[in-house]
Design goal:
2 copies of one chain form a homodimer. The first copy, chain A, is α/β, with parallel strands linked by helices. Chain A is 44% helix and 15% strand. The structure holds a DNA duplex.
Chain lengths: 338, 338
DNA sequence: GTTGGTTATGATAGCGCTATCCAATCATCG
DNA sequence: CGATGATTGGATAGCGCTATCATAACCAAC
C-alpha cells in the first residue's frame, strides 16, 4: 500500500523496510521480534535501521498495539531519600529491559495518586509499580479494571493474586523498640511525622513491644501530621524533654527526624546516649556520620526496588511469579547513639 | 466515515461525538480548543465526555498531531535535594497547565543524557527542560534538530536564542569566599566532589577571590571526583586538617559535604568555628539545624524551576520570552559555623 | 501425489486522534 | 445587493505502527 505523506521527514519503518527490501510488517517483526523472521532478513533489517538511524515512534506503537513500554512508578515523596534509592533500583532493572519508568509523586495524598493513576493509565502502560496499599476505592478499581500488571512495594499482604515486595514495618518497629529495652531504657518515646500507613505500622510495633514489657506510656508517643524534617525532629525532641523529662530514649520513625533530634539534643546540651538515647529508622545516608553515630534500622529499599521490578517483568512476560508476596529482611544497626 | 472496530471497549472520541450529536472532529475541537466551536456545542460535548468518562488517548493524540504533552526534565541526580526542589517547582507549574513532566536522571553522565534525550525525543515532547550546558555534541544536535522548545536550567548564557534560567555559580562561589575573608580567615580550603561544570564554576569564584586577596594556596583546593556525600565531607575534612593544619576555614561546595565536614570536625574535637570555620553551599534542609548552624549560600532552585517552567510554557505557546536569559539572586546565609 | 501441519512473508485494515481542505452561514462593505 | 472575508461545522485522509488473516513455501507422512 502506497501512502502519501504529510510527514516530517522523520525516518519511518517504511523507509527501513524499503532499504532492506522487505515489507513494513516484516521490518517491524525483525526489529521487535513479534514473530519468527528469517535470520538473514533480521540482519538486513537491523542493519538498515542502524544505518538510517531509525527510531521507532512510541506513540504509534502504543496506538497500534494497545500497549506502551511505560511503567509508572508511584512514590509518595522524593524528598525522602528512601524513595530515591527505591527509584534508582527500579530504574536499573526496568530500563535495560526496554521499559521506561515514569516517576509519579503522590505527596502522600490518595486523591493525588488517583489522579496520577488516571493519567498514567491512559498511556496504556506495560506495568505499574505503586507504594503500599492505602488508596482510594476508585484508584483500586482503576488498577483492577486496567488489566495492567501491578506490583505493590514496601508493604506485603497475603491476599491472593496481589503481587508485592516489602518488609514487615510492624516487626521492624518492634525490633528497634526491643533493642532499646534491652539496653535498659524504660521511658522510650516514639516520634513520627507524616503519618502514612507504614509509619503507623511501625508505631504499632513500638506500642505492642512496650506494652508487652509493661513500659508503655501513651504520653511518650508523639505523632505529628507534619512533613518529616530535621527541624521537626529537633522541635519534637525539645518538646518531649521539656514536658516529659523522664524520657531516656527516643525512637524516631525516620532518620531525618532522628538527625534533627540528635542535633537538638546537642543544642540542649543533653548527652547522647547517656542522658537520652536516640534511634532512627531507614539508615539513610549520613546516619553513620552523625556524632554519635545513629542507631537505626536498615531497610531493604534497594532490594524492594530490584525484586519488585523483577516481579513486574515476569508479570509483563505473562509468567506467574512465585511467591507472589516477598517479605524481605531489615537489619537492626546498632551504633553509638543508643 | 463509519469504522469497524477491533476495539477494547474503551470510550473513544467517536462515542462522545455520537452522544453529543456532532462529528468527531468537532468533539475534538470542543474538548481541546484547537479552533472556535459554538458555545452551545462545546457545552454539549463536554457534558457528554464527562458523562461517559471519556479519557483521551495520549498516544493517538501524539501520533495525529506530532506533539505530545510530555515534558522531559533532565536532572543529574535525585539524591541531591537541590534537584528534588527544582523538580517539585517544575511540576507545580507544568502539571496544571496540562503538561506531563517526565523525570530523567542523567547521573552526571553526558552519554547517559544523550541516550535519555534520544528516547524522550522519540515521544515528540511538547518541551524540554535540561540542566546546564555541558552535553555531548550529538545531544546538542538532537535538541536543535528536534525543534522542541528547550529551556536550560541552573546556568545562564548570553548566547542568542538560548533560553535559560539560573544564577552565577562563579559569583556565588566568590561571595562565600569573600565572606570568609571578611571574617578574618586566611587559610581557606575549598572542598568539592562530583566535579560537574557548576561545581567548577564555584571553584573558579573561590580561586579568583582568594587570588585577589593574595591568600590563594592551591594545596587547599580539594577536588574529588567521587559522589558527594556526608561521609566524603567528613573524610576530606579530616585529610585536610591532617595534611594542612594551618587551615582555618573550609568552604564545602555542597551542603551535604559540609554537614559531613561539620560532624567530622566534631569527631576530631575541632571547635567550629573557632578552630576551623565551615561553610556550605545550597542551603539544603537541615543546614539550619546543624550545631553550630551552617553558613551557606541559599540558591534559588525553586525560582529556577518556576521561572524555567514558565518560560517553557511561553515558548510552547509560540511566544518569545524576554529576556531569554534570567539570572536570579542567591543569598549568602551567615550562621554560626563561620 | 495429495493431505496436513508447520513455518516465513505479505496485504489489508485499522488503533484513536488531528491536519487540512471544503462547504455553509453570516456579517461587512462599497 | 452581490462580492468579500470571517467564522463555524464536517468529510477526508492520514500520523507510524501492529493485529490479523491470507498466502506461499517447505517438510513429513500416507
Amino acid at each position: 500500500m502506497v501512502r502519501k505523506s504529510r510527514s516530517t521527514g522523520r525516518i519511518t519503518l517504511d523507509d527501513v523496510a524499503k532499504a532492506a527490501g522487505v515489507s513494513r510488517i516484516t521490518a517491524s517483526r525483525a526489529l521487535h521480534g513479534g514473530r519468527a523472521v528469517g535470520a538473514e532478513l533480521v540482519a538486513r533489517v537491523q542493519q538498515a535501521a542502524a544505518q538510517l538511524g531509525y527510531i521507532p515512534d512510541p506513540a504509534a506503537r502504543a496506538l497500534a498495539s494497545a500497549r506502551s513500554t511505560q511503567v509508572p512508578v508511584l512514590v509518595p515523596m522524593l524528598s525522602n531519600a528512601l524513595f530515591v534509592d527505591l527509584l534508582e533500583a527500579v530504574h536499573r532493572m526496568l530500563y535495560p529491559a526496554g521499559f521506561q519508568p515514569m516517576i509519579g509523586v503522590t505527596h502522600y495524598d490518595p486523591a493525588e495518586e488517583e489522579l496520577l493513576l488516571r493519567n498514567f493509565l491512559a498511556h496504556r502502560p506495560a506495568g505499574l509499580l505503586v507504594t503500599g496499599f492505602d488508596r482510594t476505592e476508585a484508584a483500586r478499581q482503576l488498577i483492577a479494571n486496567s488489566g495492567v500488571p501491578c506490583v505493590y512495594l514496601m508493604e506485603t499482604t497475603d491476599a491472593p493474586g496481589v503481587h508485592c515486595v516489602g518488609f514487615s514495618q510492624t516487626a521492624a518497629g518492634s525490633v528497634m523498640t526491643q533493642h532499646l529495652l534491652d539496653r535498659g531504657y524504660r521511658h522510650i518515646a516514639f516520634v513520627a511525622a507524616q503519618l502514612d500507613p507504614r509509619t503507623l505500622q511501625r508505631a504499632e510495633g513500638y506500642r505492642a513491644t512496650l506494652k508487652a514489657a509493661g513500659c508503655y506510656d501513651a504520653r511518650l508517643e508523639l505523632l505529628s501530621p507534619e512533613r518529616s524534617s530535621m527541624a521537626l525532629g529537633g522541635r519534637l525532641l525539645e518538646e518531649l524533654v521539656r514536658t516529659h523529662p523522664e524520657v531516656d530514649a527516643v525512637f524516631f520513625n525516620n532518620d531525618d527526624l532522628a538527625h534533627g533530634g540528635l542535633l537538638g539534643a546537642h543544642r540542649l546540651g543533653l548527652a547522647v546516649p547517656s542522658r537520652v538515647a536516640i534511634a532512627g529508622f531507614n539508615d539513610l545516608a549520613g546516619s553513620d556520620q552523625m556524632v554519635p553515630a545513629l542507631s537505626t534500622v536498615h531497610t531493604p529499599r534497594v532490594e524492594i526496588g530490584e525484586q519488585g521490578a523483577r516481579m513486574l517483568l515476569q508479570l509483563i512476560g505473562g509468567q506467574t511469579p512465585t511467591p507472589s508476596s516477598i517479605e524481605l529482611d531489615y537489619q537492626l544497626v546498632v551504633r553509638a547513639s543508643t
